[in-house]
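Please, structure for the following, as tokens.
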Amino acid sequence: MKDRNFKYYLDLITVLVAKELKVRYKNSYLGYFWSLLNPLAMALIFYFAFKVIMRVPIENYSFFLITGLFPWQWFSNSVGSSPGILLSNTSLIKKVKFPVYFIPFTNVLNDAVHFLLTIPVITVFGLFFSKIPSLVWLLGIPLWFFTQFLLTYGLALLISSINLFFRDLERLVMVFLLILFYVTPVFYDITLVPEKYRKILFLNPVSGIIMGWRDLFMKGAFDFKFYCFYLIYSFILFTFCFYVFKRLSYKFAEVL
């Protein structure tokens, strides 16, 4: 019975992810390449502003930007689209019996797959700067992927459920992401931040994850203690978000 349920849910997730991909790239000729265009364009803008004009003292700055912007794009896209994800699947939720938390899951998984497809692009950029892929990647990529997925999925659950009762949350999330972008070391290095403010940045779990990806891709480094801290941090946040989602889920039928 459990095996049958597992197969059913796996098929359902596959169908939902495929549906999201079809909707995203409907009537699009470039398809996947659009997911590369935005971070690459941002990288170009930031490179011109901070390296050419302001001359920030960061080596291999274009590669530095890429290693931060691609994981940020995954987080930003998933969290930014989460307010309306349940609302846009109202008919599916009402017609098909399945755990509703699968909807935010497939949304995050969709963006996660796009992120994994950017790793070859990161690799090519790295080779251009003589950064050869390390064996540490075999450990670091799945571990950091899991931690970012856990954090992103948790926030998607929280935001998607609360937005059903407080529709203004969608606009607040956009403001939240804008602020979070500037307090996350995506286009600047943590060493450029005054010492007294660094602790504030470290309290932001996205900061740790971005720095973890960057150290992995640029230095072939993986700090296990640093990773464990953000894994536990992300797990605690995920547990809280999932708890809120489950407590609110029994009222979903009233508002959908």
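The mean pLDDT is 88. Residues 164 and 254 are 10 Å apart (CA to CA).
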